[in-house]
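As a warm-up, study this chain.
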Amino acid sequence: MTLSQCYAFLEIESTATDEEAKSAYRRKAKLFHPDLNDNNSGQFLNLQFAYETIINARNIHSKLNVFDEIFLKENYFKASDTQLQHFQRLERRYRARKIILLKKQKQQKVINDVYDKYRFTWRFPLVLFYVFIATFLLVLLVYDFNAQVVSKSFHLVSKENLNYNISEFTDNFIIVENEKFYVSKDFYMSTQKSDSIIINKTPIFNIYKTLQISGIGWDKFETIHSFINEAFILVLLLLFVPFLSMFFMKPNFIFVFVFVQYNFYVLPVLISYVLFVDYRIIALLKYFKFFQS
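Now compare it with the structure written out below.
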C-alpha cells in the first residue's frame, strides 16, 4: 500500500491534521473491528497499517524539518516492501542526514566564533585602519606610476660583468648613485665609465623606472627590473582585496578563511613592503613636505 493509498483508505486528504487522521481511524475502526465481524480482520489490519504509515511518515518529516520530497512520493513506497522496511530505510537516511547536518553546524560554529572575534572586538577597527592605508597606497601608486617621471643625471661609477666572460655578457650591472642596476648587454656595451646616466624615478615613492643614456642624435633606455615594477598590477590587486572584503562581510567559509586571514596576516606584510622597502616611506613624507630635503 502506497502512501497515497493510505490516505485514500482513511478517506482523508494529505493536508489533513493528525487529529483528523485519528478521527478517521477511529471511525473506520468501528466498521472493521474483528469483534463486530470476523471477516473484517484483513480490512482492520490494512486500516492499522495505513494509519501507522501516515503518522510515522509525518513524525520523520517533522524530525528532519527539511525532508526530501522523495521520501513521501508515491513511487517511493513499493508495494512489495513491508512497513518495517520502509521506515528502516527512512531512518538510515534520516541518521545520515543528521550526521551531515551536525558536521555543518560544527563548522558553522567555528566560523561564527572566528567571525565574532573579528567583527565585534578591537580587531575590526584595526582592519579598518589597514583598509584605509591599503586604499590610500593603492591610489598613490596608481597616480605615482602614471605621473610625469622625475629625471636626475648622475655619473656612472663603475660597470662589471660578474661572469667575467665578455662573449656572454651575463649578469651585467652598472653602479650609479651607490645603486647597483642590472642591465642588458646592449645597454652595458653602450656605457663607459664616467658617462652621464639619467635615472627616471616616480615623483612620490622615488621608484626607479628607467635608465637613460644619450648621445649625439640617439637615446638609449633601459627598464629597471624590480618586484614593484614587474608585479605592479598584482600589488594593486592585493591592495584592493581588503577594500573589497568590506562589501562581503558574512560569517561564511570564504569570508573567514580568505578575507579575515588575509587582512590580518598578509596585508600588514604587503603594506610594510610598499612603504619600507627602498625607504619609500621617507620619499612619501618628503613628497608631502613632512621632511625638507
